[in-house]
Amino acid sequence: MPSGAAVPKAVIMGEEVGLSRLGILPLWTSVRERRIEPELMDRQDLDPRLREQALVGLRRINLVSLSSRLVWRPIRAFARAARRPVRVLDLASGGGDVALDLARFAKHDGLPVTVHGCDLSPEAVEYANRRAKESGIDSTFFVHDVLGDPLPRGYDVIVNTLFMHHFDDGAAARVLQAICSAQPNLIVVSDLVRGARGFLLAHLACHALTRSYIVHYDGPRSVAAAYTVKEFAKLAEHAGLNGHRIRTTWPFRFLFTWEAQ
Asked: Would you state the pLDDT for residue 241?
């Protein structure tokens, strides 16, 4: 930044902060153990303009990672076998990237699948509903606190992407139990896998694909807080999701599926 230039400001945790003062985890950070630290996108008092900029950046990252297509495959198989209209809920839907992609894939494949989404952030929900309307997609998003209120029943499939790494083991288990209590026929979870190579990729991809400082800050923290495949499988079993399937996917993520018998 040129000498004398103004430092970009953001309202973080109710305080105006120069972005250059906020620390990004260095490349040499150890990720052998889970390292859960607050992420800026989780702050309810984050400047809405910065939140929307971050959502746009995350949309670009999701597009490159092909995460929506990986999530769609088990849903497509379920919908074809069901031979009836299927309702899907995307839990912690953020800006609606995955939910809207799933709705598009369903239309393309000629399957009667309706996709809704919910998120704790009113700004994210408003943004997702606006995108759905602009795209002509019949998807609705609503505000919901998964740890504070029961999930609505009536959904055949509950999807969750890039959410579990935000919680400690106890809270993550409660989220899985809340999903189970909604009695879906299929559960699909996709999240980051903790590891040194994934941590390096998060640094590189976040800086290459978006100028959002929020994404630059949160991306490496998300990987440092993520589970390994073995850790998440153990957590799922503890939550009562026996008989699940879990595998690694590109780029350094896992895909977890559980289907009611």
From this structure: 95
